[in-house]
């Protein structure tokens, strides 16, 4: 993944990138559920 002249390589290559995306999705869902339970 390139932004301008800098190359960004996710840790663990493609698998690490997929894991980070999955983790962020799961974390957002969990946070949303927790907020709904608290409010």
Please provide a brief summary of the model.
The chain crosses the membrane at residues 12-38. The protein has 39 residues and is mostly helical.
Provide a descriptive summary of the structure in words.
By secondary structure, the chain is mainly alpha-helical. The chain is built from one helix and two strands. The termini are far apart. This is Dihydroorotate dehydrogenase. Keywords: Membrane, Transmembrane, Transmembrane helix. It comes from Micromonospora andamanensis. The chain crosses the membrane at residues 12-38.
Oligomer: single chain
Q: What proportion of the residues is helical, as a percent range?
A: 55-70%
- Give the uncertain stretches in residue-range form: none
| Rounded average pLDDT | 83
Q: How would you characterize the largest beta sheet?
A: 2 strands, antiparallel
Secondary-structure content class = mainly alpha
| Rg (C-alpha, Å) | 15 Å
How much β-strand is present in the residues? 5-15%
Number of strands: 2
Keywords: Membrane, Transmembrane, Transmembrane helix
Organism: Micromonospora andamanensis
Protein name: Dihydroorotate dehydrogenase
